[in-house]
Amino acid sequence: MLSNQAADPAKRTSLHGHWSSRMAFILAVTGSAVGLGNIWKFPYIAGQNGGGAFVLVYLLCVFLVGMPVMMSEVLIGRRGRRNPVATMALLGQEEGSSPNWKWLGGVGVLAGILILSYYSVVAGWTVAYVFKSASGVFAGAQAEQVSAQFGGFVGDWRLVGFSHTLFMGLTTFVVARGVERGLEQAVRFMVPALMVLLFVLLGFSISSGHFGEGLAFMFTPDFSKLTWDSVLAAMGQAFFTLSIGMGAIMAYGAYLPEETSITGASGSVVVADTSIAILAGLVIFPLVFANGLDPADGPGLVFDTLPLAFGQMAGGVFFSTLFFILLSFAAWTSAIGLMEPAVAWLVEHQFRTRAQAAVMVGGLIWLLGFGSVLSFNVLSDFKFYKGTIFDNVDHLTSNVMLPLGGMFIAIFAGWVMCRNSTADELGSSGTLYKIWRILARFVAPVAILFIFLKAIGLLPDLS
């Protein structure tokens, strides 16, 4: 099945095809990176952790830690040209280490499955809210009515389960169609559409009369609210929003043409992803302040407080519908990337067709997702460690699996792979390569490990 994988890395080809161009890869990875993490999660986490102070730490995490790890993951993926598990095993042997590095690839694939199991549930909310908004249910509604809509929806496991099922069905359909006919065609439409929608909503937010207040909140740091948990949240958010450590970037890297610059493509993705997260905050916070709402309202910020804001404004039905279409597109492009590594693994190792593999993986994720579906209703009182099943899966993946996965990816690329291999993939041994090598070998792994150990209480206070 894998006989076409030549020993010479330059001659390897992916069984699943390649992106047709550099732009297709950038759109695909941007689509995978830009999702609910940018538009749903980033604003409320920033609101809970000091606004500008959190944004500053987040930006440092993105550029000093996130980007070198992303470059590492892409170069590993292109070097191996297989699914993440097989790629790590192959390169571990080739670089004179051990095929047991396959477990790192396996953890990434598992992280993608677990993330999508709860991500799909929240994404289903966005799809349901497109129809709620379009029906005008929020027009002129008071806070109690909007809250009752949200509580009534998530409190009914059948409604949440249906929207979760619909979203997973749409995601499985795209992934089953393959790299060029499925993944590439989807992101060529959805990523530009997402950007257009975001800028239209930004114009609406600027006209709210509270844009300056939102701008000040986003960029005026309040360090009194910044804790080590906040720093871990910033790093987890950087990894979550860039899709690092979950196998998606490695799988997409396997389809990257040889002539495409990894440094340039990764830089474009990081800038686009970070810009969208900032823009999402600039869309949301002025609307929150315009209606006297709390920017630290948590996960309900988008589904509880924003519909109230839209409902009080002229043209609110139109713009509210537009906002939730934006969220749905963002979620869909990310979900496609989260499914791809597991589907690629099944196709390569279990001799399944792509359609069969997509249905099997999609079905597993759909089933696991019901733990999160029930976390908001039937099992809402079943709590342990960090809270509900939903809370625990979110914490395990965002704050444990992704940072540690990213740390070991950087260690593998920076320390296990030889200089010739990494320089060959990055296409340079000049200044940019030297900066990446320093960040990947020293800055990223040390920063990730320190912040992780500090946040879970294994390091003492420095004061």
The assigned CATH architecture is Up-down Bundle
How far the N terminus sits from the C terminus, by CA atoms, comes to 58 Å
Rg, Cα atoms, Å: 21 Å
Low-confidence stretches: 1-5
3D architecture notes:
The protein has 463 residues and is mainly alpha-helical. It has one domain (9-455): Up-down Bundle (Amino acid/polyamine transporter I). The protein is 74% helix and 0% strand. The chain is built from 18 helices and no strands. It has helices at 22-33, 36-48, 52-80, 84-94, 102-134, 143-154, 157-176, 179-206, 211-219, 228-242, 248-253, 262-290, 300-311, 316-349, 354-373, 389-416, 419-426, 431-455. The relative contact order is 0.20. The model is unreliable at 1-5 (pLDDT under 50).
Explain briefly what this protein structure is.
The chain is mainly alpha-helical.
